[in-house]
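Take a careful look at the sequence and tokenised backbone pasted below. I need to know what the token row says about the fold.
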Amino acid sequence: MQKLMGLVRRCVDDYNMIEEGDRIAVGVSGGKDSLALLALMAGLREYFDKSFQLEAITIDMGLHMDYSAIEGLCKRINVPYTVVKTEIAPIIFDHRKEKNPCSMCAKMRRGALNQAILAKGFNKLALGHHYDDAVETFLMSLLFEGRISCFQPVTNLDRTGIVQIRPMLYIHEKTIDHFAQRMELPVLANRCPVDKTTKREEVKNLIFELSQTYPDLKERIFGAMQRYPLPEWEPHGRYKRPKDEE
């Protein structure tokens, strides 16, 4: 816990993610990444040198998922929790019958989340993207769009005034897996009908295969994103590449 909070703290400091008095919402899907972020942000709140408020928000996609265990976790770590009910999944899969639903789903989910955040007066949204997500997104942009691009550690949404932050960018996915198991986080099964069949899953498998020959592939890509920085990727603090955890 302390080691991972240290990585979160370093990422937050490198990109100036948190300011005094911030009201931060954590987007909680029920997956391991968002629950790990919630637990780590709650821990960081206790000793960070700038005080901030924290709340968890879940967008219920209409997939008949039970969030009571997450509600229990939030009570234990003293974080308010809100579930926003929507019909996003039925609209996409039942009514529109989208063949490529991921893009529209992401837009609708972001819209619902931003609306909920604005209604509650939050100024920042913390998202659970991690080290591997960044590498995968970079390769997806290159392979499928012909662009050198990735999401930013800190993103200012001009139309809403919300600032998105990604405090877990220095933590590897398998480290998060182990953390979620050790902490017995209430990870929910993904009920999305297209789970494990997306372009991201293809790229994840490609990276795994290439890493058998080039073990430091992910570190090289992530380091390149910072050394020859994509927009907003150059860290302000001293960056040391996070080592893969066993």
